[in-house]
Amino acid sequence: MPARLPDPAEESPIARTRRARRMLRLLEERYPYAHCELDFQSPLQLLVATVLSAQTTDVMVNKVTPTLFARWPDATALAGANREEMEVVLKPTGFFRAKTESVLRLSADLVERFDGVVPGRLKDLVTLHGVGRKTANVVLGNAFGVPGLTVDTHFGRLVRRFGWTQETDPVKVEAAVAALLPRKDWTQASHVLIFHGRRTCHAKRPACGACPVARLCPSYGMGETDPVKARTLLAYELAPGAELPDPPPGPLSDDVDRVR
Ligand code: SF4
């Protein structure tokens, strides 16, 4: 279908920017409810939850954090927690010894250098134990309202498939996408791309035939293109009536011409 799309390598920067913004609008229409899927009530809770989300699902993290934060409600309490006790609480998230170590050291960092308060600046957040740009941007975007791009595995895979960038280094991916999208949209763009990666554009078998950006995606066809079969691949965590797939993409509309 998108045979008329320009080769991303030959696409002008302006055309790529317009195409990226059009794709983002379509994805926002598909996932109007996209949000941070980790439960939290404070920057500290989100910071810890994000650290715990490595190698597991947000759903699993959300199961353990109520117990964690009820038992140790602030950075001082977390820093002084009994290691074995915390390991028991974190065990369901996997890699629980390493995660316990991370939470203890991160909390100690906060107490020693920031009076137990999560800083609201990227340059401070990334000095904390176990906190990289991805985690820092999650916290800034969702707990502080500071726009940030969260380059996780879904985000990186999708922007390469989209032909927005061919970079693989997360910092370079972040810079390339930041140049394409308005700053105010960065946090929500992160959410909708991650939703799209989890629900439609899967790593192994993307559901191209049920994809809202198929007409603008140079990778269309790498997954299932039959609309009926593609719909069976959609992975929804259904809120009743809330997440309904779009109609299958039809013949090329004028979308492509409009973004050139
Ligand atoms: S599902 Fe297919 S068409 Fe849609 S973004 Fe992924 S690769 Fe492109």
From TrEMBL:
Gene Ontology BP annotations: base-excision repair, AP site formation
* SUPFAM superfamilies, sorted: DNA-glycosylase
A GO MF annotation of the entry reads: class I DNA-(apurinic or apyrimidinic site) endonuclease activity
**Cofactors demanded by this protein:** [4Fe-4S] cluster
Q: How is the cofactor bound?
A: Binds 1 [4Fe-4S] cluster.
Q: Which keywords describe this protein according to UniProt?
A: 4Fe-4S, DNA damage, DNA repair, DNA-binding, Glycosidase, Hydrolase, Iron, Iron-sulfur, Lyase, Metal-binding
**Which InterPro entries has this protein been placed in?**
DNA_glycosylase, Endonuclease3_FeS-loop_motif, Endouclease-III_FeS-bd_BS, HhH-GPD_domain, HhH_base_excis_C, HhH_motif, Nth
Q: Which domain of life is it from?
A: Bacteria
Q: Which Pfam families match?
A: EndIII_4Fe-2S, HHH, HhH-GPD
Residues reported to bind [4Fe-4S] cluster: C201, C208, C211, C217
Record EC number = 4.2.99.18
Q: Which reaction does it catalyse?
A: 2'-deoxyribonucleotide-(2'-deoxyribose 5'-phosphate)-2'-deoxyribonucleotide-DNA = a 3'-end 2'-deoxyribonucleotide-(2,3-dehydro-2,3-deoxyribose 5'-phosphate)-DNA + a 5'-end 5'-phospho-2'-deoxyribonucleoside-DNA + H(+)
Q: Where is this region: Disordered?
A: 240-260
- Residues in domain HhH-GPD? 52-199
Q: Which family does the record claim for this protein?
A: Belongs to the Nth/MutY family.
The record's function comment reads: DNA repair enzyme that has both DNA N-glycosylase activity and AP-lyase activity. The DNA N-glycosylase activity releases various damaged pyrimidines from DNA by cleaving the N-glycosidic bond, leaving an AP (apurinic/apyrimidinic) site. The AP-lyase activity cleaves the phosphodiester bond 3' to the AP site by a beta-elimination, leaving a 3'-terminal unsaturated sugar and a product with a terminal 5'-phosphate.
Q: What is the official name of this protein in its record?
A: Endonuclease III
* Protein species of origin: Phycicoccus elongatus Lp2
Report the gene name: pdg
